[in-house]
Amino acid sequence: MFAPVLFVLGALPLISCLPSVKAPYERRIDECTVPTQRKSWTALTSEEKLGYLNADLCLMSTPSKSGIAGAKTLWDELQYAHIIQVPYVHFVGAFLPFHRYFMAIHAHLLKTECNYDGPIPYWDETADVGNIKESAIFDAEYGFGGNGTGSSGCIADGPFADLTLHFKEDLNTTDYCVTRFLNDRGLSSASQENIDTCLAMENYTSIWSCLEGRPHGAGHGGVSGTMVNLFLSPGDPIFYLHHGFLDKLWWDWQALDLTTRLAEIGGNNTASRGGGFPGGGRPGGDFPGNPFGPGDNSSFVPPPGFNISNPSPFPGFPGLGGEPNKAFTDYFYDGGNVTTLNHTLWSAGIVQNITIGDVMDPRSGFVCAEYV
């Protein structure tokens, strides 16, 4: 396994502990013999649902192993690996490949650390448009629990009602709960019309931009609370099912022309549009990724803790007072600002680094999964 490479975070921006840029690391990826099945949550049996939920609870109680400062559990490690590189895995060409890698890491930990051997579920969000609060995925017994309650919005029922998170946006640690503010307006961006528009795109940069727009904003905005925070969203376990849905859509698009699309990549390596969540994370924004929709949202009341004026404290976004951090950009091995198949995918030492080329076909290699 690739040796962990950590960043020392004092005053932002990050100070690198990385070695100077050299030839890419050696990658050792096991052969894929039995792909993991990925299924819609509603296609799982009750026993399979409970098995998956218990495996996530296992990650939340298993002590941290990678040496990440401040991490108490494996769940903390996953959230850290997302927080620390938000500007380099959102609004960039690596958005879809990174999240395919990130979900595979989550699935790998479920299997190796918690002995889970069942299917990996995704959330068919389109089926729940207009009825999010009644979705089976938010069932208190055979689901992820429902809405947040009270002024805090903390989850009040289900298996994750007592879940405590630790890492904040600046990687300082403090205890806080997972919040939700379920709303149909946000999830409406997962409409079949929007999905069909994305699947009709003709090249990678177009499908990436389309999926990171309305479909990406749908699950995050529909659940809201912790999920609408671009940094902290992996703290809510629904995150992995939401990105499972996005990954399935990317795979559906790839499958339309495997010869071309299993090797088609592109886009920029640093965020070309700043400001937190898609659409700037601000109600009223007209960018199609705004999870709360375009136009006048003056009646929208943001959940507690959602800072409209400055939703992103991380200075890595150009346009928000930060410059791209060479600790990351030089480590991508792209030879420039255009995303290539040789682009490094990094997980803070939780598992080995791999490249985008290693995850382009989810049926083989590191991902080793099939949608059924």
UniProtKB/TrEMBL annotation:
**Species for this entry:** Hypoxylon rubiginosum
> What name does the UniProt record give this protein?
Di-copper centre-containing protein
Highest rank taxon of the organism: Eukaryota
